[in-house]
Structure formats: C-alpha cells, structure tokens
C-alpha cells in the first residue's frame, strides 16, 4: 500500500458502501462480506414492457439494463445523491462496469451520456450524480462522454410522486438536445441511477432518436424493487 493511501485510510477508514459498517483495514472491497453475500442483482425485468405500461407512450429505447434492485442500494444512492458524497461514484460505477463487461453491453456504443438534471437542482446538489457515474464508465471503457448534449429544460417533479395521468405531462418537453451532430447516426448509452417507471429515460430516448440517434441503450445502477415482485 502506498504511503498516501495508508495515511488516507487511517484518517478516513473505509466503510461498506451498502451498510456503512467499517471495513477491514487495507481491504480492496467496497462492501462488507455480509452485503456482498446478500447482493440483490436485478433479474430479467422486461423494461420495455414496463415502460409501455407506465408511460402510455411508444418506447424509444432499444434495450435497458440495471445492476441491482433499488432496495439493496437505496442507502448507498441516498448517501451519494443527497449527502453529496461525490466520491461514492467510484465504487458504484465499478459495479456498473463489472456488470457491463460481464454482459457485454458496451460493444458498439459510440457515446455515453447521463440523464441530465435541471440547472436549479444542479446548483442545490453541486453535481449530477448520473454524470459522475457515466463519466467513470465512459473513461474505463474508452467511450466518448458527452455531458451537455442532452439538457433538462424543465424542472420536473419526481415521477414516482405523481399519478399515471400527471406523469406524462410532467416529463413531456423536459429535455432538449443541444448539439445534434454529436448524436446523429450514433449508438448512445444513457446512464442513470434508478429505473422506476421508465418515463424519464423514455422521454430522453425520444429526444435522442428525434435527433438522429440510431440506437439507445439505457444503463441504470438500479431498478425499482416493485419490478421484482412482478417478474418473479
Ligand atoms: Zn455492508
């Protein structure tokens, strides 16, 4: 172990990303053995059917993957997103990278972009959590990363707080593509942290397809645990 690492670990002991228990000194693992054993990986969810059901719109993305069911990573996501621990992106993106490589989902992808947050929310949080994940994934897999091509022009309410009727109006027109040349003719991977109803990513995919994207693959850190019950 390098001296600097040793010093940092003494000052900031590593904690399990899932349950925040202290980890063994010098470990390379991101989770404790108990959380590693109980990892709740997302199963064969039919995301396209789910989005069709929930959005009442055509589905514009071509494929979708999630690593975990949300309940398993809930506290990790909250810590990362709402308590502003930007460095949590490193272990969380590592889980996405591992899944992506094991399932060969990065091949043929030309550009990775995050689901954007509205400027107002960006100011509150200081960073776009999806962007932090997407940046690491793009970097590790030698794929172009574009942060400001897809922008959120409407500060929407979280979709899960709304009724079926309200959702469509809430998300419609929320996104814009700023630089079509960077999207046109490209196979795009859209990165986000939670797939709930698919409304947000579907609206993003719609804008990307309208701007000439030939393929849109959605990659999520997690999907709603409600989808587990339906698909088992
Ligand atoms: Zn743990």
Descriptive account of the structure:
This protein is an alpha/beta fold and 232 residues long. The chain folds into two domains: 1-38, no CATH class; 39-230, Rossmann fold. The protein has helices spanning 3-11, 33-37, 47-55, 70-82, 89-102, 119-125, 129-140, 164-171, 199-210, 226-230, and strands at 63-69, 111-114, 144-145, 150-152, 175-177, 187-195, 215-223. It is globular and about 50 Å long. Bound molecules: zinc ion. Zinc ion is lined by residues 16, 18-19, 21, 31-32, 34-35.
Structural topology:
Blueprint: H1 3-11, H2 33-37, H3 47-55, E1 63-69, H4 70-82, H5 89-102, E2 111-114, H6 119-125, H7 129-140, E3 144-145, E4 150-152, H8 164-171, E5 175-177, E6 187-195, H9 199-210, E7 215-223, H10 226-230
Parallel strand pairs: 1-7, 2-3, 2-6, 6-7
Antiparallel strand pairs: 4-5
The structure holds zinc ion (ZN).
Zinc ion (ZN) binds at residues 16, 18-19, 21, 31-32, 34-35.
Task: Write a brief caption for the model.
The protein is α/β, with parallel strands linked by helices and 232 residues long. The chain contains ten helices and seven strands.
Main attributes?
232 residues, globular, 10 helices, 2 domains, binds zinc ion
């Amino acid at each position: 172990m390098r001296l600097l690492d040793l010093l940092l670990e003494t000052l900031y002991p590593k904690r399990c990303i899932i349950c925040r228990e202290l980890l063994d000194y010098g470990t390379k693992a991101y989770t404790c053995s108990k959380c590693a054993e109980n990892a709740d990986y997302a199963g064969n969810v039919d995301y396209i059917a789910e989005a069709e059901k929930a959005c009442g719109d055509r589905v514009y993305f071509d494929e979708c993957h999630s690593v975990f069911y949300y309940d398993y990573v809930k506290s990790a996501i909250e810590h990362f997103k709402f308590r502003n621990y930007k460095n949590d992106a490193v272990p969380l993106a590592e889980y996405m990278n591992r899944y992506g490589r094991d399932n060969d989902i990065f091949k043929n992808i030309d550009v990775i972009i995050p689901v954007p947050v509205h400027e107002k929310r960006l100011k509150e949080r200081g960073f776009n959590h999806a962007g932090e994940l997407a940046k690491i994934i793009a970097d590790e897999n030698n794929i172009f990363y574009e942060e400001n091509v897809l922008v959120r022009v409407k500060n929407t309410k979280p979709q899960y707080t709304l009724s079926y009727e309200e959702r469509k109006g809430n998300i419609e027109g929320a996104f814009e593509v700023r630089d079509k040349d960077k999207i046109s003719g490209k196979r795009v991977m859209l990165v986000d942290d939670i797939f709930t109803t698919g409304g947000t990513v579907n609206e993003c995919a719609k804008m990307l397809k309208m701007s000439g994207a030939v393929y849109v693959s959605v990659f999520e850190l997690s999907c709603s645990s409600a989808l587990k019950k339906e698909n088992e």
